[in-house]
Write a structure and sequence with these properties.
GO terms for molecular function: (3S)-3-hydroxyacyl-CoA dehydrogenase (NAD+) activity; 3-hydroxybutyryl-CoA epimerase activity; delta(3)-delta(2)-enoyl-CoA isomerase activity; enoyl-CoA hydratase activity; NAD+ binding. Pathway: Lipid metabolism; fatty acid beta-oxidation. In the N-terminal section; belongs to the enoyl-CoA hydratase/isomerase family. The structure is a single chain. The chain contains 28 helices and 19 strands. By secondary structure, the chain is an alpha/beta fold. It has an eight-stranded mixed sheet with strand order 12-11-10-13-14-15-16-17, with helices on both faces. The protein is globular and about 90 Å long. It starts with 7 loop residues before the first strand and ends in a 14-residue tail after the last helix. It binds nicotinamide-adenine-dinucleotide (NAD). The site of nicotinamide-adenine-dinucleotide has 24 residues, from helix 12 and helix 15.
């Protein structure tokens, strides 16, 4: 028989309370060993005459961060099935919840997933106000599998339980108290003594002994519960139409309400076993670890360089991006100077920042006091006079090489010697931008995505001359403004825009040859993107698209698809959503509707480019549209990997999800490419390149992987040049 590794410690006090401490540092993750140890400790304590009641607590002020995510998404055999049944029913329900002595959970730090589910089965929960509680399993493509789907609704009521489970929401101890999820709050240094007293009070019948699985007073009557569950189903379908696990989870909750909690527990265990092996779970687990991996930058984060203090930040340009970036820095409590070229543009920029912050306050993301405080950190200027003590400048002026070159040369004159110069350029090679600047070691790219105050990605571009210190400083800043930073090398379009440039190009190529604009957008949104390429082009604006496009045409003339469509639309004063006319027409509320007049521009562009219409393209299936738009993205991502622009393939997954909204449940662009298979992608691209030209031609990296049938991005041969 396998020996269990001891993961809990039982200590019995003179008051007759047995304290069971989970000891599985650093996060006290729950594993089979933890469960077996807990079971043993509880059984021992229940047997002992000197123990009246029990308290379960986690070591090092952390209750338990839940199950080990590395075990999700792996193939599970019969043993796992038995284990899951054992954990949920035999341990949580029959040993812990049914113990003959009251058990109190004393919660500090994280109590997530399986960790919280242990606490839910205890007879009372006491927590610190800063503790974090949540059933976060849905974010990994699974569902709570240790009775959480049955106990949480019975403790907090169905609507609140659904909100927590469906959104993988984390609550502070303070908020959990309001819901009835915890019974009392105690300061950290008194947590254990309050829990002890509470346990003894239960023994003395001064407080109730609650078995949450059979608690019914918070459950709505069946008819009402069904209405709530059906509403949750339709919201889940609307939010994530391609995902089934949220619906499975609702079915499991319903089973417990209709057929009783024990039946619900069995259905939950069965569902968990299935979901743990699903493609969605594999993709979401990959995404979770890929995001963590971005924190490691070889040769940078492993050096002993401490970030310097950045106190004052200047933003150049108060347009769409500058105002969003300023908002992000203010929310990170930085002093921000916003510079514009004239009074009118400056006041428009400052107004945008204020509106952004007010909208945060309206949504309850910041308090009114915080709004006032951060607004006092903002200053608008028209010259460089106040730049003499600025630590970091983010340039967000128009996408124009000579303007940016001039601005960077000016900065050198007015800023202190330590000041970092970052550009938010979408596509211009940073060496070009810094051509007129002497101190090129202080230059790097800080590429934010629109809207900058919300989008979670910061693409940091280091040139061959960027100093390590400057990079370390910006990485630290990115944490403070709550962005996930992906560090990439310097090239035209960097990683994100370069990967996705072929996406819009393929869309344009297809419509000029007969495909339908609105059908393409529909297929792409059905795939899971936030919007299709044409709706996106309208949002970004045609002038930005032309400015960026010109960089690609200059750099990659041999494979860029040249189209006259957007210039023709610009001639007609169509600039996209800002002019309420682009590929769509927009009403005052920015609601988009298809424009029948678009055909005119497409036909004109076709004539100029001498393109022949292929009637088959008007009958493309949604799957074919997805392939024709995304396989070129995979192809470009392969070039990026081959050139060593990205540190690792999974960084491109993160960049595609957080920068462009590629669905996280597909794992990111490279993960998805591997799921489809490099061989298939390569052969399709080869077929299309024979018909439509070089634009579709697979790159050598992709061809090599297709031939060898090796997954994209796993080799060490193409070492990063970063
Ligand atoms: P925008 O036209 O909305 O704003 C640019 C602002 O810069 C204008 O208000 C202009 O008056 C100001 N400006 C020009 N010269 C200046 C100077 N010398 N000092 C101070 N201000 C000056 O443009 P935007 O969409 O905010 O784009 C700004 C930059 O961000 C561009 O490089 C663009 O490529 C990049 N970017 C744009 C997006 C996007 O979605 N629009 C996304 C990422 C990056």
């Amino acid at each position: 028989m396998e020996k269990t590794i001891k993961k809990t410690v039982l200590e019995v006090g003179a008051d007759g309370v047995g304290i069971i401490t989970i000891v599985n540092p650093p996060l006290n993750l729950v594993s089979v060993d933890v469960f077996l140890s807990l079971k043993k400790s509880i059984e021992e304590a229940v047997q002992r005459d000197d123990v009246k009641a029990l308290v379960i607590i986690g070591s090092q002020n952390k209750f338990s961060a839940g199950a080990d995510v590395t075990t999700f998404g792996k193939s599970q055999g019969k043993k796992a099935h038995t284990e899951l049944g054992f954990l949920s029913i035999e341990f949580v329900t029959d040993t812990l919840e049914a113990a003959r002595k009251p058990i109190v959970a004393a919660i500090d730090g994280p109590a997530f997933g399986g960790g919280l589910e242990i606490a839910l089965a205890c007879h009372t929960r006491i927590s610190t106000s800063a503790a974090q509680l949540g059933l976060t399993e849905l974010q990994y493509g699974i569902l709570p599998g240790l009775g959480g789907t049955q106990r949480l609704p019975r403790l907090v009521g169905l609507p609140k339980a659904l909100e927590m489970i469906m959104m993988s929401k984390r609550l502070s101890g303070k908020d959990a108290l309001k819901l009835g999820l915890v019974d009392a709050i105690a300061p950290r240094d008194k947590l254990l003594s309050v829990a002890r007293h509470w346990a003894l009070d239960i023994v003395d019948y001064r407080r109730p002994w609650v078995v949450s699985l059979y608690k019914n007073d918070r459950l709505e009557p069946l008819a009402e519960a069904r209405i709530i569950l059906n509403l949750a189903r339709s919201q889940a379908r609307e939010r994530t139409p391609n995902l089934t696990h949220p619906l499975v989870c609702i079915d499991v909750i319903e089973e417990g309400i209709v057929a009783g909690p024990r039946s619900g527990l069995w259905k939950e265990a069965e569902a968990l076993l299935q979901l743990r092996q699903s493609d969605t779970c594999k993709a979401l687990v990959h995404f979770f670890f890929a995001q963590r991996a971005t924190l490691k930058i070889p040769g940078v984060t492993d050096m002993v360089l401490s970030p310097r203090n950045i106190n004052k930040v200047a933003i150049l340009g108060g347009g769409l991006m500058g105002s969003g970036i300023a908002t992000a820095f203010l929310l990170g409590n930085y002093h921000v100077i916003l510079k514009e070229v004239d009074h009118h543009l400056l006041s428009a920029g400052l107004d945008r920042v204020k509106a952004n912050l007010q909208s945060h306050a309206k949504k309850g993301k910041i308090t009114k006091d915080k709004l006032e405080t951060v607004l006092s950190l903002l200053k608008g200027v028209l010259d460089y006079d106040s730049f003499k003590d600025v630590d970091l400048v983010i340039e967000a002026v128009l996408e124009d090489v000579s303007l940016k070159q001039q601005v960077f040369a000016d900065l050198e004159k007015y800023c202190p010697q330590h000041c970092i110069f970052a550009s938010n350029t979408s596509s211009i090679n940073l060496d070009k931008i810094g051509e007129k600047t002497k101190c090129q070691n202080r230059i790097l790219g800080a590429h934010f995505f629109s809207p900058a105050q919300f989008m979670p990605l910061l693409e940091i571009i280091r040139t061959e001359r960027t100093s390590l210190q400057v990079l370390v400083d910006l990485l630290n800043v990115s944490k403070k403004i709550k962005k996930t930073a992906v560090v990439v090398g310097n090239c035209t379009g960097f990683a994100v825009n370069r990967m996705f440039f072929p996406f819009s190009q393929a869309a344009t190529l297809l419509i000029e040859r007969g495909a339908d604009i609105y059908q393409i957008d529909q297929a792409i949104t059905n795939f899971g993107m936030p919007m299709g390429p044409f709706r996106l082009a309208d949002l970004v604006g045609f002038r930005v698209a032309i400015a960026s496009g010109s960089q690609y045409i200059e750099k990659f003339p041999e494979r860029v698809y040249k189209s006259y469509l957007i210039p023709l639309m610009l001639e007609d004063k169509r600039e996209g959503q800002s002019t309420r006319k682009g590929f769509y027409l927009y009403d005052e509320k920015r609601k988009a509707s298809p424009d029948p007049e678009i055909v005119k521009f497409v036909e004109k562009a076709r004539i100029i480019s001498q393109v022949i219409v292929n009637p088959q393209l008007s009958r493309l299936s949604a799957g074919e549209i997805v392939e024709m738009l995304f396989f070129p993205v995979v192809n470009e991502a392969c070039r990026i990997l081959a050139e060593g622009v990205a540190i690792r393939a999974s960084d491109l997954d993160i960049a595609s999800v957080l920068g462009r909204g590629f669905p996280a449940y597909r794992g990111g662009i490279i993960f998805w490419g591997n799921f489809i298979g490099s061989r298939y992608i390569c052969s399709r691209l080869e077929d299309w390149s024979k018909v439509y030209g070089k634009f579709f031609e697979p790159c050598p990296y992709l061809v090599e992987h297709a031939m060898n049938e090796t997954p994209l991005g796993t080799e060490t041969k193409h070492a990063s040049r970063l």
